[in-house]
Amino acid sequence: MSALTVSEEHTSPTAAKVIQPAWVRILHWTNAVAMVLMIMSGWQIYNASPLFNFRFASSITLGGWLGGALLWHFAAMWLLMVNGLIYLALGFATGRFRKKLLPITPTGVIADTKAALTGKLSHEDLSKYNYVQKLLYAGIIVVGVVIVLSGLSIWKPVQLQWLTALFGGYDAARYVHFICMAAICAFLVVHVALAFLVPKSLRAMIIGR
Amino acid sequence: MGRMRKLLIPGVDKTLLVKDAIKTMPDLTRRRFISGGASLGALTLLTGCDVSDSFSAEDMLKKISKFNDGVQAWMFNPDALAPTFPESAITKPFPFNAYYDIDDAPEVDGKTWRLEVRGLVENKKPWTLEELYKLPQVKQVTRHICVEGWSAIGSWTGTPLRDFLKIIGADTRAKYVWFQCADKEGYNSPLDMPTALHAQTQMTFKFGDEILPTAYGFPMKIRVPTKLGFKNPKYVISMEVTNDYKGGFWEDQGYNSFSGN
């Protein structure tokens, strides 16, 4: 696996095995900060011209007004994008995606969903993801890629018009961008709730073990 | 620490000394001292933290916005045309949008109006509307995208700005063309030269084949389909070719200055 994991195991041979290597932890929490900044400023931007019949309360938005929110959104996008690209590159290069997220089989997903809903899903070995986790983690990576691409196509509908066209035009890209945000928020609710239900998984994402 | 040690008297228990000192203070004074100290500390902490935080955050955001200007200028392809649409795609009614109500839109008298031309140009003669109408015109049906997120497709007809810049002998190596408008509070906006020279950047005189109505910027609007709506000034009264960044109505309030599509 990654050089980082190997070196950690060498320096502390008595410690329990590393569940989340340092690079995953650093990128995970950087992404968490970037995501929160993007979502909260995004809600303020949405409020300037809502797609649906509601607005986000100003207490949960960032930027104070449209101009401020845009400054935050177009600053945090660099953090999100650079961090995300490093994550994708390392995820593929170290084989983490292949080892952790594949294969995803329908029977596995159905069996593990049933087990999860009846409280029978084991969390003994945190280094191995169950099929529900595999599906959600792989899915949210795809959503992350789509939200960045749809965002770029809204930002640059002339320079990147091929990308905007891929999403079905400027107006459609705004809906795609919004739906991806909603998917990430839904994921966050489940993700954070489960992290607190299985605290050792949260610990592993903080100290690695 | 050194100073503290000097203040101590040898042979005197410092804890007892403090206890004795406190005894000499009236209860009320002590309490006021503590509460005063607490609120002062809280105030310094809160305001100090608040002020410095928001200031540094604002500075950082402004710097990143400037960096984004550079990134967008680098991304800008002078040959990339904004997508055009059939007449059937035109949004009806096309929205009026400004920071004031339509009743407060400036009513410009076309007979007395002159387009002032200033800065790095050879011929600074003001232009009447009649003279401008004689220049060759081109029609475009393009998407107007507002910084707020909404968009609308419109039909604009007028003279490509780059043709006009050539006629007046503008120094196209200059950095900006800066527009001033008749809106109350004086709307203005800078346009970077590469965008000013883009084929679709237009001095617009007609909307939907009709003379530009007041709502859309009579007598002249600058239509820039490669920019967000607020960089498409209406009711234009002057243009200045300049190397100085002179700011703009919305740009000064925090909207990204390049704001390219």
Write up this protein.
The complex is a heterodimer of chains A (209) and B (261). Chain A has 209 residues and is an all-alpha fold. Chain A has a single domain, classed as Transmembrane di-heme cytochromes, Chain C (Fumarate Reductase Cytochrome B subunit). Chain A is 72% helix and 0% strand. Chain A is built from nine helices and no strands. By secondary structure, chain B is an alpha+beta fold. Chain B has two domains: 2-62, no CATH class; 79-253, Oxidoreductase, molybdopterin-binding domain (Sulfite Oxidase, Chain A, domain 2), CATH 3.90.420.10. In chain B, 31% of the residues lie in helices and 21% in strands. Chain B has helices at 2-7, 14-24, 27-75, 129-133, 161-167, 193-196, and strands at residues 114-119, 127-128, 138-145, 151-160, 176-181, 188-192, 202-207, 210-211, 221-223, 236-242. In chain B, the strands form two sheets. In chain B, strands 2-1-10-5-6 form a five-stranded mixed β-sheet. In chain B, a hairpin with a 7-residue loop joins strand 1 and strand 2 (127-128). The longest helix of chain B is centred in the N-terminal third of the chain and has 49 residues, at 27-75. The model of chain B is unreliable at 1-5 and 28-52 (pLDDT under 50). At the A-B interface, helix 2, helix 3 and helix 8 of A face helix 3 of B.
Short characterization:
Chain A is 72% helix and 0% strand.
Features of the shown structure:
heterodimer, A: 209 residues, mainly alpha, Fumarate Reductase Cytochrome B subunit, globular, disordered N terminus, B: alpha+beta, Sulfite Oxidase, Chain A, domain 2, 2 domains, five-stranded mixed sheet, five-stranded antiparallel sheet
CATH architecture descriptor name of chain A: Up-down Bundle
How far apart lie the N and C ends of chain A? Answer: 16 Å
Number of separate helices of chain A: 9
Count of the separate structural domains of chain B:
2
Largest sheet of chain A: none
> Most extensive interface, residues per chain?
A-B, 22 and 30 residues
Annotation, overall tally of beta strands of chain B: 10
Specify the helix fraction band of chain A: over 70%
Report the β-strand fraction of chain B as a percent range: 15-25%
Q: Could you say what the CATH architecture of the largest domain in chain B is? A: Alpha-Beta Complex
Largest sheet of chain B: 5 strands, mixed
